[in-house]
Amino acid sequence: YVQVVKDLGLGPDRLYYALEEDMCHTEADWAKMYPRALGFALETVITKSADGEVVVSPAASNLDRGELERLGREMSNQLFFTLPAEMVPGHPATVYFNANCSELLRGKRNPKLHGGYNGWTMDKFSVAMGPCDIPTFDYAEWWSATFTVPKSATQLNAVFSDDVEEEWDNNNGEDYLMTIANPEIEKPISDEVINAFDEEARKLWEKRAKPEHWDDMIFTLPNPIVAGEPCAIYMNPKRSSVLMNVEPITCFGGFNGWTNGNFEIVLRSAPLQQYDVVRWMTNKINVPKDAYDLHLSFADEHKLMHDNNNTDDYILKVQNPEQKRVARTISEIEEQDHAGGKLEIVRLASRPGSTKKAKWKEERMLRVWTPPGYQKDNAPEGGYPVLVMNDGKNLYEDWLAHQGVSWNIGYCAADLIGNGILPPFIVVGIDSPGPFRSQCYLPFPPGCGAHDHRPDAARWPGGDVESYMERIVGEVLPLIQSHWGGSMQREKLALGGASFGGVCSLYTAMKYPDTFSAILAESPSLWSGEGRFLEDMQKHKGEWAEKIFIGSGTREYSGTRDHEWQEIDDLLLHYNQEAVRILEEKGVHQDEGRLAFQIEEGAGHIESAWGHRLRGSLQFLLSHWNDNNHQSNGEQ
Fold it and tell me: What is the pLDDT of residue 155?
């Protein structure tokens, strides 16, 4: 049959066939072929002009009735599809909706499509869907609506309803997301640029081709990726438990949390030195001008096996000097008396354009304590000093704290202020995102630590601390300034945390010395990555925060467990001692008042220990706030 069709003139652009060993005449085996078949059937939906611009193929908007009927049958188990499959800004598009696949709208006549672009921030619309040229089957009832996609659109968010808007299908509150092509991504990359990337990668890998780097699964050039420029993605499937023996690799990517320019490319062998445990594969892609991150996942050629970092995606930072972050807004506030001042439980509104998946990892709750006598309109010149703390839920109230005892930070701050040791200041506790806590606080996944002493952390995510800190600096601090009169001056900003939050604090001391002058790192979990963060500290050649406090107990492991493990207790203390040694080596000296290190005999890894050391740590770190406060009020 294939030969007969070939003889009729169907070339490879119109004919796809496959002969697969061990496949049978069953629905299960046909399902395995379905993704490839459908991908080939729809690949004419979007084409490129000679100059690389994305255009709508006539096939996308002019399918004849027979072609639409075949497509409708193929998609009969889907709720909707679009033509073109990836809509194009400035061009018409059609959404086809299968009412039979909606439990809420099955059997309803003339359903409506309700849409909005770019996270519902622009051009919201509602349109009645009408009958289309796809016949109704027992298992599919198709309706359609056609519209023109705005030129500035990057995604279409959509829900469906019945004709009187009483029954709604909104994907269980998560809405439906339809992709829109980004012409910037589609532009061709010259062979000269591609070869330059591979040559740079070859030289880089020659320097790094040592066993300690064989665990690397992904790197990019440039690193970090730059908005508006092409980039090269290199992936080593040998480090993937799912894809280690697969070739080629399908790479799925999406910028800005999959909201701006999604793509699918094939990674093939890179011209780098390969080993039994290292097999680099690569492809190149353009980065949109407004990108700030890149999410990646990988699959085999047939898209049956997937590695998406345990559903967390592989997230890469995109450097974007022109990116302008917007201050977070408040959804609601609950206020209560606390330690002579006020404790406000602040629920944040969703970030504009954020995806439902991303919202699980982003800041949703602040716990803001203001001191006795606080008045926003009576703030000192430059604003109230602000202490930002990770793990906000553990700070104030025992009943909320992770281990049943809080830091009691409000009472400690009130005592220091009341006794004139520190000026009035604001404490901002930022709740962690629960299961994604390690993702936000660590620059890499924690792993199990030395001697596998933390097997529970084997699959915990990590690597998103930079994005977390960018949100704190660019979105949370401006909110604290506008709503509570908090300062944005470096001298009046401090950040602290414990455990993973303590690692985040040390990262901040290294990467954000121009934003925060003082850093509190209690019991930092430097065991994560088996001490890898210490290597990062050693390699750092830039400035550090002006003042750093590190606290540690001698029973960091055994103090909160029903068994003793002295070797691990000693190792965890040693990690903290090494951090202090590195800081001293980098010029952050204890004898100059820039560094303090407190070892508490018998103390464990618990909030009660951190709270016990809190008065001394804050007095050391924040004493200069008194000097700044006197100067701002004209005292010399």
Answer: 83
Distances in whole angstroms, Cα of residue 434 to Cα of each of 284, 360, 365, 429, 441: 35, 8, 12, 14, 11
Torsions phi, psi of 613, nearest 5?
Answer: -90, -5
DSSP assignments along 2-18, one per residue: HHHHHHTT--TTT----
Preceding peptide of 248 cis, ω within 30°: yes
Residue 526's nearest CA partner among 581, 468, 592, 566 is: 581
Residue 379 DSSP one-character state = P
> In the structure encoding, which two tokens stand for residue 636, read together?
């010399």
CA-based max dimension of the chain: 96
pLDDT tens digits along 416-460: 999 999 999 999 999 999 888 999 999 999 999 999 999 999 889
Residue 446's SS3 state is: coil
Whether 213 shows a pLDDT value over 80: the answer reads no
Integer-rounded Cα Rg, in Å, for the chain is 28
Pair 232, 201: CB distance under 8 Å: yes
* Token code pair at residue 400: 């909320």
Cα angle vertex 381, ends 380, 386, to 5°? 60
Predicted local confidence at residue 499, as pLDDT = 97
308 φ, ψ (degrees, to nearest 5): -120, 35
* pLDDT of 101 above 50: yes
Q: What sections of 113-219 are H helices per DSSP?
A: 183-186, 191-208
Beta bridge partners of 300: 249
Contact 239, 217 (CB under 8 A): yes
Helix spans in 485-563 (H): 500-511, 532-539
Contacts of 184 (CB under 8 A, 6+ apart): 228, 261, 286, 287, 288, 289
Tell me which long-range contacts 475-478 makes (C-beta under 8 A, separation of at least 24): 475/325, 475/326, 475/327, 475/328, 475/351, 475/363, 476/327, 476/328, 476/363, 476/366, 476/388, 476/428, 476/430, 477/386, 477/388, 478/327
Beta bridge partners of 220: 233
